[in-house]
Amino acid sequence: xxxxxxxxxxxxxxxxxxxxxxxxxxxxxxxxxxxxxxxxxxxxxxxxxxxxxxxxxxxxxxxxxxxxxxxxxxxxxxxxxxxxxxxxxxxxxxxxxxxxxxxxxxxxxxxxxxxxxxxxxxxxxxxxxxxxxxxxxxxxxxxxxxxxxxxxxxxxxxxxxxxxxxxxxxxxxxxxxxxxxxxxxxxxxxxxxxxxxxxxxxxxxxxxxxxxxxxxxxxxxxxxxxxxxxxxxxxxxxxxxxxxxxxxxxxxxxxxxxxxxxxxxxxxxxxxxxxxxxxxxxxxxxxxxxxxxxxxxxxxxxxxxxxxxxxxxxxxxxxxxxxxxxxxxx
Amino acid sequence: xxxxxxxxxxxxxxxxxxxxxxxxxxxxxxxxxxxxxxxxxxxxxxxxxxxxxxxxxxxxxxxxxxxxxxxxxxxxxxxxxxxxxxxxxxxxxxxxxxxxxxxxxxxxxxxxxxxxxxxxxxxxxxxxxxxxxxxxxxxxxxxxxxxxxxxxxxxxxxxxxxxxxxxxxxxxxxxxxxxxxxxxxxxxxxxxxxxxxxxxxxxxxxxxxxxxxxxxxxxxxxxxxxxxxxxxxxxxxxxxxxxxxxxx
Lengths: 330, 248
Description:
The complex is a heterodimer of chains A (about 325) and B (about 250). By secondary structure, chain A is mainly alpha-helical. Chain A is about 55% helix and about 10% strand. Chain A is built from 16 helices and 6 strands. In chain A, β1 (about 90-95) and β2 form a beta hairpin. In chain A, α8 (about 150-170) packs parallel to α12 (about 220-235). Chain B has about 250 residues and is of the alpha+beta class. Chain B has a domain at about 135-220. A two-stranded antiparallel ribbon of chain B has the order 1-2. In chain B, strands 3-10 form a two-stranded antiparallel ribbon. Chain B has a two-stranded antiparallel sheet with strand order 4-7. The longest helix of chain B has about 30 residues, at about 5-40. At the A-B interface, β1, β2, α5, α6 and α9 of A face α1, α2 and α3 of B.
């Protein structure tokens, strides 16, 4: 339970904190003690050196298998909408905000929430659709929606690559923002829907805009998506996904209690921080820092999008997908 | 004297200020997109069954399922035009009117949120707006003139279902030329019975004066068929949006 509370706090933008000694389990304390021994440290440093000698991963490297699957998944899900309309297949009619999947109502959780606040009515179709979609994304980890379905995520990932490349060249500096911003905006957009009776957020949601652009054609609203990508390339790494998007936050709440998680094994970790460098939401990987893991085995928090980049980045396999409560069978 | 901040505090303050600035920017853009709707800068024809404008804006989830089922593709999603009500459906009747080719009312059935009221199931119950003879002097019937040829020219892509030609499929208006002694296109192609008729200009009109004027009756639902088919440029008859929602 404390784990869930902590992970929701992280989702809301709480800063990581140093734990007191009694918060660690005996096993974790033992491992940390062991890792602090001089000969263990030397061994670890030697291992990291050795590994840095190896050539850097390229995209075609097998190490990026999750990313390939993810990109395929985003493409497939969004193409289903496009194909359904343009070739009249009628498999998934609508857009990401709401649709019918072979006749069954589906609704994006956040869109349904916004509509309910603005309209001040509970629409039964939306409840059915949102619960269905909610269960599906809960199963695979809440914010898995972000990295496995959201079309903006894909563009944003490319923008992030460009951003990191430019930063790597030393031409610009990244500007991290305060993560509490997303919680504030979440409340502001909810209040705006309630107050104006219009889903103000939907007008600027690049997720809805992109999904509709794909299905119904590109329009001027794409300028806004361009502006966001510009910000992400030149100023703030993953500006929208990290600091703004209420959709991600809504799914994040589901993710806090989802069965599918990424699991961290303290024993295998060299604490070199490769995972935190590639992560969209590095605060969830706080436990990978030296002497920070409270237990020998830990699940990554609610904000995690289950993208698998940390798994790919980790040279020692300390991070892996895991079904909670399966007793290690899965 | 202001308290001296440590470099770390200065950095934190910069981050906080920048976050507040960027956050305000995002909310500001959202509000900017809402302003034209709030001020009602534009008047748009909404799809059949649309709730009162303010309820439609509140309940539309912007998925476009109404767009997908419309056989003549009359419904389009607003995108900058339409007062930036991005993703909200409307009908540009002059370009493509709703002619109930679907036999009413597929868009209503498709709507997942009831933004198009599910209380409607007959075309006669629709209340999108009402037709108005905006440019009486341009009306051919009022001048006693006939019409020969393609109603909107050869390049016009608009569709209409001519029951006598194909009961099930709408065809291009440009594939259906007319030869009329007195232009009565708005009356002839109106999908609603007794919604519009041609009447004499005055009670004491001479018997050999064939000029007539279109008169819109209570039954008009504002589908826009008359506006689309009107052969003069720009249309003599147009639809005024009903912002109040369906009658039922």
